Amino acid sequence: MANRTGTAQRPNGQTQGKICQFKLVLLGESAVGKSSLVLRFVKGQFHEYQESTIGAAFLTQTICLDDTTVKFEIWDTAGQERYHSLAPMYYRGAQAAIVVYDITNQDTFGRAKTWVKELQRQASPTIVIALAGNKQDLANKRMVEYEEAQTYADENGLLFMETSAKTAMNVNDIFLAIAKKLPKNEQNTGQAGNAQGRRLTEGDTGPRAAGNCCK
Amino acid sequence: MTVDMPVSLLKNPELKFGAITFFAKQHKGDTCGSNGLPLTPNSIIIVGNAQLLKTIKSPFLCDFLDIIRGKHERTIVVSQYCGTPLAKIIDKHVLTHLQIKKIAYQALKGLSVLHKLDIVHRNLSNENILRQENGDIKLFNYGLYHMTNRGALVSFPVLEVLYTAPEVYLSGFDSGHVDKKVDIWSLGQRIRKILSLLQVNTSIFEKIAREHNCYEVYLNLPADLKELIELCLNIYPSKRLSCEELLDKLYFNEFRDIQEQKKMWEPFEVFSIQELYYWWQLAGGDVFQELKKQGLIRSSPPILSLPSLVLIEGTLLGQDRNPATLYDPRIVEMPLETLYQRFIHIPITAFYPLIHSKSDIISSSDPPPYDATGLPLVIKEKDPEYQFHRVILFRRLLHGYPFTKDLIRQEAEKDIPPLLRGDVWSALLNVPQGYERDYMRLDKYSHTTTDRQIEVDIPRCHQYNELLSSTQGHKKLKRILKAWVYKNSQYVYWQGLDSLTAPFLYLNFNDEAKAFACLSNFIPRYLHKFFLKDNTVVIEEYLAKFSQLISFHDPQLANHLHDINFDPKLFAIPWILTLFSHVFPLYKILHLWDKLLLCDASFPLHIGLSILTQLRDRLLTSGFNECILLFSDLPEVDIEKCVIASMQTYQSTPRSITSREHENEQFYKKNDLDIRGVTLEELKKESCPRISAADIINTVRKNPDKILLIDIRNTTLFHRSCVKGSVNIPFSSVSFNETVLDNLGTHSSLIKSKGDKVVAIIGDCETDLERFPNFLLQCNVSRVCVLHGDFNRFTSVIPTILTSGTTN
Ligand SMILES: Nc1nc2c(ncn2[C@@H]2O[C@H](COP(=O)(O)OP(=O)(O)OP(=O)(O)O)[C@@H](O)[C@H]2O)c(=O)[nH]1
Ligand SMILES: [Mg+2]
Questions:
Q1: What predicted TM-score, i.e. pTM, was given to this entire model?
Q2: 3-state secondary structure of A130
Q3: Which residue of A109, B243, B716, B803 is 20 to 30 Å from A50, comparing CA positions?
Q4: Residues B55 and B184 in one domain
Q5: How far is CA B572 from CA A112, B461, B606, in A?
Q6: Which residues line ligand 1 (CB under 6 A)?
């Protein structure tokens, strides 16, 4: 009952391509557009008056990559600094993270760097991190140069794209790029600590880590 | 008592209303603001601005009633409209100089009310001055200039060409000329017009009089009237007198005394025109339809509005200008017959409900109260007659606040009339007199580090609502939040405080101070310590209590959620931190909080439980992902069901089951027999809640058949002394290997057939107080709880509830 990867096992045992599940977390200062990016990716929509996120929200989306089906389990977290203490619960056990900033606001870029550092220290060592400079549609109000962010991303081994949840630019692409970079063989999956069956309230695990790849 | 008496109360010639309509300027194409998001539609800004007009009360101004948005920026203004326009009167009658002076005086009185609020009429004409049957006048349509940001939000000029002051023409229409003195000019022009004088020489007035060949009339005018007009028609705004200065003139003395003395106290109105308008709507009145019927709103086929040419960047060319975007001065009066008919049988006594000292004789002569019990809430809220009775009653009760506090509460338990909800809520929240002063003193403007967060949250907070998305709404919300943060330095702004404030602002849009006072009293009562900078322990305790409450009422669901690791921490934080104001739309929050305000800080736990209960079947058959998705996107929760279910569990749950360490003791006093000193670590380990000795004693004394006491101490101790009616299942006698109730031996059948009794487990320091309750929980036994402390708690209780256990 507790085995969520069960759906991936085909009753007839045929192996028609792999199905992989990955846990992905979005981090970044409040109002940079994390929820908007997720909404665009999952439902293809954009709400101007997207509500702020309190705690976190969960959504899933599946994409196809060659012969592999990749299912993202997405945790969209609250951006306000005060909710910081909840964040580990979500990024622990995550195989991927998108750290988002708003290209029209320099402070949010600084905050993104802090998140990257924290992930590098605390999250799984194999976590794939992408940096998203969102609100690209407002490029005429840009405060963070593309090159600056690109250099930073290169130095830290991050994927980087400028995105716009509003125009949908690069939104699918960034998720796709992450999916490509994620290891899709079984040896590489359990690393984040497969926390299935352990209780969250013990405080040392996040929502159960996925990361199972089933042939 | 005759039947038409009451109708005549409604049929007051001044209790009539009408509507005008116009279009707000449309934003071009899809222009965006500097944040890349669409601009707030002008009609929404207008709606926000217009709210202030609802607060204006003056016998010389028509009451402003409502503002409605239609499609394509159509805006409809509903306002009191009664009497006859001066324009019509002066066509047929000649008014005496005394009458004219009185009109001038009353118009100045009306204008001075507006000017004090920085509202400029700009539209003063003889069409907009309505003479009542008793000869008094009321100014009409004074809000247009104010609500349209001085005309900037509409594509027509807000002015009366003939009567407009010269400086307005000098500075151009769009410059937003705000000097109130333009009204004075118009007033002067108007008086002149009434005198059918059309002229002036040394003075403007004389010139106008000469130009219109009326110099003789001018010369024969009494000196005071002449002076008045000349003062009004001074071409220099700086020299033109203000309302107050004009009102001080001696020649107004004769009107002053009678009018002013009345103002000693506010007379109690049985009902107001606002309420009449509200009932009229409930009885089927529809402003939009009336405007359509009378041809003010015409829909033309969309094809006619197609442009001839659309450029690739979106510019439209060759579109006919819609003449409707110009100002249409027509006023449509609203027919009241249907309402009169509907209320014809309401006896006069119903307008004066008895509240105190009901004697049997009097109440037996009372008409039977309008019976709506058992009807769903939404129906009751739409029933004009029921709302008539509720509004009349609550109005009186509110008038007597704070002395009627208990009665208000008692009536609110039935339901709260939506029209008066704001005031009823603040009564339920004990908002004190003088709240305005409190609010005035707080700093709402200095820059703080929280500003950015507040600024990015406000445009995301319940923006589907016209009031909250209007410019005024944003400003007000910001001020309230900043004032709260300023006042509560021990607390900080957490995202979510905006949602929490929204219902109060929505209900008290014109009384920011009251919205603030409500919020200020609400938080200590329901969210004590939640806004601490570090609120981790407070939230964790609350969540642990929530899990326990689920176990208590629905063990099967609790076990399932436990199995799939579905922890409330993952979905319930926004629920509790904002008391559901972040997850539900406003209309649902209002109904939910109607009940919340009658209950204590444990009620939100029951609301949470009832939501789970409503989704129970889906949760039980789903795994982790499906469950959490269900909450990321809260499906249609039936709020009325939710309210009923939460009330039920709230009332049937001993209070100590939800008792918390971080509860505000100001509202929940604890004594030695209550639960105290449970650490968070202990709490998190316990799947079943504790129950206080006090609650057990109470139940054993008052409702012994509502509780099953299981004493798990050893038999010797039990036989020495035990609680009356308790059964003994010594802890050591139970094998916990399998989760089968039969393992409990002879007493298992007692548990199986317990119905909805509370199962309280009593032990002592020798017994394990976790395994036994967990075992029962796993066997899906509901309402299991554990005595806080141990058996010895009961020994000193007088009168005793103990007995020697030999009979068991
Ligand atoms: N112009 C523009 N606006 C955007 C874009 N993405 C998001 N926004 C707007 O930015 C605001 C904030 O977006 P959210 O998605 O709520 O931001 P968030 O990062 O989830 O914020 P928190 O939940 O508070 O952490 C909203 O008003 C969005 O409409 C974008 O790509 N372009
Ligand atoms: Mg968000």
A1: 0.89
A2: strand
A3: A109
A4: no
A5: 27, 19, 12
A6: A 28, 30-36, 48, 50, 52-53, 78-79, 134-135, 137-138, 164-166; B 36-37, 459-460
Structural domain harbouring B140: 95-144+156-259
List the structure tokens of A143. Answer: 């405060």
Of A31, A48, A89, the CB nearest to B456: A31
Best residue among A25, A27, A29, A35 to mutate for probing ligand 1, ranked by most atoms within 8 Å of CB: A35
ipTM of the complex: 0.84
Rounded distance from Cα B329 to ligand 2 centre (Å) = 47
- Interface residues from chain A to B (CB-CB < 8 Å): 1-2, 4, 30-31, 48-60, 73, 78-80, 82-83, 85-86, 89, 135, 137-138, 141, 166, 196-201, 207-208
Quickly list DSSP for B734-786: ---SS--GGGGGGGHHHHHT-TT-EEEEE--TTS-TTHHHHHHHHTT--SEEE
Number of domains in chain A: 1
The reply to whether B232 and B136 lie within a common domain is: yes
Distance of CA A184 to the CA centre of its chain: 16
Nearest chain A residue to B684 by CA distance is A201
Higher pLDDT among residues A153 and A200, named by residue: A153
Which one-letter DSSP state was computed for residue A108? H
> Chain A contacts of B536, Cβ < 8 Å?
85
Asked whether the beta carbons of residue B460 and residue A135 sit closer than 8 angstroms, the reply is: no
Q: Which residues span the domain enclosing A100?
A: 18-181
Tell me how close the Cα of B452 comes to any Cα of chain A, in angstroms.
9
Helix (H) or strand (E) holding A64: strand A56-65
Tokens of B572: 């319930």
- Report d(CA B18, CA B141) in Å as an integer: 11
Q: Could B34 and A141 be called an inter-chain contact, meaning their C-beta atoms sit closer than 8 Å? A: yes
Distance CA B669, CA B654 (A): 15
- How many domains does one find in chain B? 6
Residue B593's CATH number: 1.10.472.80
Cα–Cα distance, B92 to B88 (Å, whole number) = 7
Please check whether residue A143 lies inside any domain of the structure. yes
Is A4 inside a domain boundary?
A: no
pLDDT at B192: 62
Q: Give mean pLDDT, residues B102-122.
A: 86
DSSP string covering B378-407: HHHHH-HHHHHHHHHHHHHHHHTTTTTHHH
Candidates B451, B456, B461, B548: best to mutate against A (most CBs of A within 10 A) is B456
CA gap B271, B108 in Å, rounded: 27
Confidence of residue A115 (pLDDT cuts 50, 70, 90): very high
Q: Which CATH number characterizes residue B515's domain?
A: 1.10.8.270
Could you tell me which of A23, A90, A31 has the C-alpha nearest to residue A55?
Answer: A90
In a domain, B669, yes or no: no
Closest CA to B416 of B595, B273, B586: B595
What is the per-residue pLDDT across B553-612, written as a single tens digit (0 to 9) for each? 999 999 999 999 999 999 999 999 999 999 999 999 999 999 999 999 999 999 999 999
Residue A51 belongs to a domain with what CATH number? 3.40.50.300
**What is the sign, positive or negative, of the torsion defined by CA atoms of B388, B389, B394, B395?**
positive
CATH number at residue B728: 3.40.250.10
Overall average pLDDT of the B433-453 stretch: 94
